[in-house]
Design brief:
CATH class: Mainly Alpha
Mean pLDDT: 88
Largest sheet: none
Structural class: mainly alpha
CATH topology: Four Helix Bundle (Hemerythrin (Met), subunit A)
Number of domains: 1
Radius of gyration: 21 Å
Strand content: under 5%
Distance between the termini: 50 Å
Number of strands: 0
CATH superfamily: Cytochrome c/b562
Length: about 150
């Protein structure tokens, strides 16, 4: 019994020491990590939708709907305090996101519109139109990446 109690106390002390030495990730960095994961998920859904577009329209549209939900949330995923250089934060997001919020919002809205257009082409069974719409989706992604995302670190 004594040994178990001693181990529990040792574990609590070690956990507290880890917290005290800064081994934790800041809340702002957690937010950054979540938005990065969401962006990767969105990109994956878009790629899956494109690959399914010729074979399984229903599944492709489901993937696009998931990507659209993420795209529409993009501006809210960049709160103040989550820029590179903010306390405890490392990110590729450029300061321009916060200094040119209107332009960033416009770029995010452009991506959402491109995803909706691709969905409309899929719904209409317009294969050629869907291919062109997916090209527009990729351009919308690139617009944001080129203007608002820095190089890999």
């Amino acid at each position: 019994m004594r040994r178990t109690g001693g181990l529990a106390i040792l574990g609590a002390v070690l956990l507290a020491a880890g917290v005290a030495t800064g081994d934790t990730v800041s809340e702002a960095q957690k937010s950054v990590d979540q938005r990065v994961a969401a962006m990767k998920e969105m990109g994956g859904k878009i790629n899956e939708a494109f690959q399914l577009s010729g074979a399984n329209t229903a599944d492709a549209r489901t993937k696009l709907a998931a990507a659209l939900a993420i795209a529409q949330s993009i501006p809210s995923r960049f709160p103040a305090g989550t820029a590179d250089g903010d306390a405890g934060v490392t990110t590729r997001a450029l300061p321009k996101i916060w200094s040119d919020h209107a332009g960033f919002q416009k770029a995010a809205d452009g991506l959402a519109a491109a995803l909706k257009a691709a969905d409309a082409k899929l719904a209409a069974n317009d294969s050629a139109g869907a291919d062109a719409a997916f090209t527009d989706v990729r351009k919308a992604c690139a617009t944001c990446h080129e203007s608002y995302r820095g190089k890999a670190k």
